[in-house]
Amino acid sequence: MPLDPRLLEILCCPAxxxxxxxxxxxxxxxxxGLLYPIEDGIxxxxxxxxxxxxx
Length: 55
What we know:
11% of the residues lie in helices and 31% in strands. By secondary structure, it is mainly β.
């Protein structure tokens, strides 16, 4: 289920404060390339839970 667009407007990457894009795998930071998982429809915005992916 997609996240509410209003939520995406206020969320940012906790590591670099970059903008986030919603992907099937989670929320992808456009700034540093971290991917934050979404579990049960809830974004897990913890740096320790994020994975580094290619920009």
